[in-house]
Specification:
Radius of gyration: 15 Å
CATH topology: Rossmann fold
Structural class: alpha/beta
Strand content: 15-25%
Number of helices: 6
Distance between the termini: 12 Å
């Protein structure tokens, strides 16, 4: 579980399930200084447009940190200066690591879970995709992505105070 005084909320769901909208709404209702950690990278025009839409959804009260790889370091750095932190999303983070630092992926994930265990101050809302409910991927890298995502999601759910599964825009509290 999270350290004393902190709250870790884990929001998981499929693509376009409404998980980011739900997480933003939950986090926006909390008082205090707010930080949004974005793991997405704009490698093409469509992704640039997605990122722009997400930015427009957030009010001016949100300070944005764009960090594709070193999310644990960012959270450690801002946890004492921000009351609310929204991390969106773990699966894009895993993709970023698989494409650039695959050899360090396990170490990054272990460090993230360790950081969550010592997280003591802010309300932390973490968004991730549920990718294990579909077919078995055809390629090795896709299977590695699915397996790593599933394993990390399990570990985050274990340390989280609350877990929500979002389906068709409807949240279901599962922990």
């Amino acid at each position: 579980m999270a350290g004393s005084g902190s709250r870790i909320i884990f929001v998981i769901g499929g693509a376009k399930s409404g998980k980011s909208t739900f997480a933003l709404r939950q986090a926006s209702e909390r008082p205090g200084k707010k930080a949004y950690i974005a793991t997405a990278q704009a490698f093409d025009r469509e992704m640039e447009e997605r990122i722009a839409r997400h930015r427009k959804e957030r009010s001016a009260e949100w300070e944005t940190f764009e960090e594709p790889k070193h999310i644990s370091a960012v959270i450690r750095e801002i946890t004492n200066t921000h009351d609310v932190i929204l991390l969106d999303c773990l699966t894009l983070w895993i993709s970023n690591l698989l494409l650039t630092d695959e050899a360090l992926l396990e170490r990054y994930c272990d460090d993230f879970i360790e950081m969550l265990g010592g997280h003591t101050r802010s309300y932390l809302c973490i968004v991730s995709n549920e990718v294990g409910m579909g077919i078995v991927p055809e390629s090795t890298v896709s299977r590695k992505f699915r397996d790593c995502s599933g394993y990390l999601n399990q570990r985050v759910a274990h340390v989280a105070n609350e877990v929500y599964l979002i389906a068709a825009g409807i949240p279901l509290k599962i922990k």
